[in-house]
């Protein structure tokens, strides 16, 4: 079987077009546009790129985007900034790009963001809602995977989903989202014994380990849908967690890296910003 390549770039473009229409309707009704405020500290090149993509995406769909960029900042000043943005009614979404410098407590910063404006879905209130099945603002990368599967008409209900990687922002929330949609979920990680024995059972295999090409062809069931989230710079080239060329021969559908999940994550930041703005302004029905 030769897998169909899932074009995340094209799906994300379609979603941005839909969002542009919804943002225009929001503007007509409210006389204002949703506003996303992005905070970035330091010089991490990947973080700078992600922030740029989120900002250009926002502008494309008509969402106002404001960047707060600092070479360095104290934790106290950063918390004060978030407090100010929380109180500002003209700010609908707040996103603090991670990682933050080591001298700043990331958890404290995330906890300071008002849960209603937490477009990353990282606040424990939003994570807690996800845990209990009352999904609110959801983390953007796992949400992007779910939207992508929906657009591709991949059935989730009753399927064996195996996730490799248990991070708080990807693996764990994705496990809960798939569970809510009635998949049978296995969450694997670095201490998993005989990883291949799990991955080979997967109808839906999701790699989020940030370990280049760790998923080899023999680890994949024939006909599986394979979603590659990990992305690592290897000698200046973006390489995914899946050995794409070989795994493509077994999968029914597979995402490439780049051009798979990445553009979906950015689209979901925009979708969450609109959702947050609608909720703050009481919807626009
Ligand atoms: N760093 C890596 N991924 C993310 C993300 O989804 N959101 C934020 N804020 N920072 C990140």
Summarize the structure.
By secondary structure, the protein is an alpha/beta fold. Helix content is 42%, strand content 17%.
Write up what this structure looks like:
The protein has 285 residues and is α/β, with parallel strands linked by helices. The protein has 2 domains: 31-115, 3-Layer(aba) Sandwich (Rossmann fold); 140-262, Rossmann fold, CATH 3.40.50.720. 42% of the residues lie in helices and 17% in strands. It is built from 10 helices and 11 strands. Strands 1-11-8-7-5-6 form a 6-stranded parallel β-sheet. Strands 3-2-4 form a 3-stranded parallel β-sheet, with helices on both faces. Helix 1 packs parallel to helix 10 and helix 2 (45-61) crosses helix 10 (261-280). It starts with a strand and ends in a 5-residue tail after the last helix. The model has no long low-confidence stretch (mean pLDDT 97). The structure holds guanine. Guanine binds at residues 95-98, 120, 140-141, 169. Guanine is lined by residues 95-98, 120, 140-141, 169.
Low-confidence stretches: none
| % residues in beta strands | 15-25%
Mean pLDDT: 97
Shape: globular
In terms of quaternary structure, the protein is single chain
User: What small molecules does this complex bind?
Assistant: guanine
The total of helices stands at: 10
| Distance separating the two termini | 47 Å
Helix content: 40-55%
SSE map:
Layout: E1 4-5, H1 8-30, E2 35-41, H2 45-61, E3 64-70, H3 75-87, E4 93-96, H4 106-112, H5 124-132, H6 140-151, E5 160-164, H7 171-180, E6 184-188, H8 195-199, E7 204-207, E8 225-228, E9 231-234, E10 237-240, H9 244-247, E11 253-254, H10 261-280
The structure holds guanine (GUN).
